[in-house]
Amino acid sequence: MSIKAIKNEIAGRMDKTLRSYEEELHTIRAGRANPTLLDRITVEAYGQQTPLNQVAGVSAPEARLLTIQPWDAGLIPEIEKAILKSDLGLNPSNDGKLIRLTIPQLTEERRKDLIKLVGSYEENAKIALRNIRREYMDKVKQMEKDKEISEDEERVYEEEVQKVVKDYMKKIEDISAKKEAELMEI
After folding, report:
1. How far apart are CA 43 and CA 71, in angstroms?
2. pTM for the whole thing?
């Protein structure tokens, strides 16, 4: 396996980790209404857990308001229950056809809690990157043991793996800093 092939393989896996991390951060509300805020919520519908966006339309008609239009009005109590059980801290209100979620201003304490949450998500993403690095370092060591590459080539491969990991660690830190800044504004 060439250096280029290993770098491409690592980059592909790390891209997935990065996308997953970004999706996690979208679920942290920053004081503005965003339909992706509800992406993780599942509703008990028709005897099984179903993602909210598959049983209702979610929109943000105003900066601090989300509306949920269930396709079956009978699901309104289940949707409200799922929102109340989530860690979003939102209180739904409905008029029998539409659920409204008003996004409150973030308190200083809540902002700090959310920044801690960003930090824990960041650490989980970094752990995932480190696990990928370890896997590829082991793979390179095995290639050297199997005499596919020399000791010098092993060092070069390991340095290249480390460079890719360092780049992705930096990307994660940048994304975290951006999210923290977003949480502290307003």
Report:
1. 13
2. 0.69
